[in-house]
Amino acid sequence: MKPAVVLLSGGLDSATVLAIAQGLGFRCYAMSFRYGQRHAVELQRAAEIAQAAAVAKHTIVDIDLRQFGGSALTSDIEVPKGRSIEAMYQSIPSTYVPARNTIFLSFALAWAETLNCSDIFLGVNALDYSGYPDCRPDYIEAFEAMANLATRSGTEDKHRLRLHAPLINMTKADIIREGCRLGV
Fold first, then answer.
1. What is the mean pLDDT of residues 113-132?
2. I need a labelling partner for 20 at 20 to 30 A (CA). Which of 46, 155, 166, 169 fits?
3. What CATH number does the domain containing 102 carry?
4. How far apart are CA 66 and CA 7, in angstroms?
5. Predicted structure pTM score
6. Regarding predicted confidence, which is higher, 9 or 87?
7. Which residues partner with 7 through β-bridges?
8. pLDDT value at 46 more than 80
């Protein structure tokens, strides 16, 4: 079985992505982050999901993004509720954590390289990229290209890294259906 690093937040999207990766035959290494988010229950769920899925290893990385502020998820800014689809396309919401996916993917990239692994899975989707710039297909493609220029495996070993975002074009309803189909 080929190894893969899976970013596992503890929510529906990442749990579904983990099931997809395992269904594709990958031996999964789950990575979660304690980044100063207001909802620590996510990490409890991530640990439960990782255990239930019998991942090869689950690691929780501690970084503190609260020191930068700028997000309703890491500071005392009110979390918006009930935004319309139109509003999602007009501006980046206050729940955007500056550079979060870039930071998470950088950690995943480092772990993948030490595991001699060429595959990283993450649960970004259509609903996310309508408001978050680091959940969009062009961002995922650009990060993958950068990762292959910035690593030993990408430059010396010619071991091309691939970012997998299998939910990117799915709605939340599609993700729920796929999660149910996979037993999530």
1. 82
2. 155
3. 3.40.50.620
4. 20
5. 0.83
6. 9
7. 31
8. yes
Domains in the chain: how many in total? 1
Coil, strand or helix: which one is 128? helix
Range of the structural domain that residue 46 is part of = 3-181
Res. 14: pLDDT tops 80 = yes
- How would you label 41-68 residue by residue, b for 16+ Cβ within 10 Å and e otherwise? ebbebbbebbeebebeebeeeeeebbee
pLDDT at 74 over 60: no
Residue 126 Cα distances to 37, 130, 166, angstroms: 22, 6, 11
Distance CA 109, CA 119 (A): 9
Q: Which residue has the tokens 């430059």?
A: 155
Please give the backbone phi and psi of residue 42, each rounded to the nearest 5 degrees, phi first. Answer: -55, -40
Torsion angles phi and psi, residue 118, rounded to 5: -110, 5
- Closest residue by Cα to residue 9 from 38, 49, 66, 36: 49
| Strand locations in 22-117 (E) | 27-34, 57-62
**Distance between start and end Cα atoms, the chain:** 21
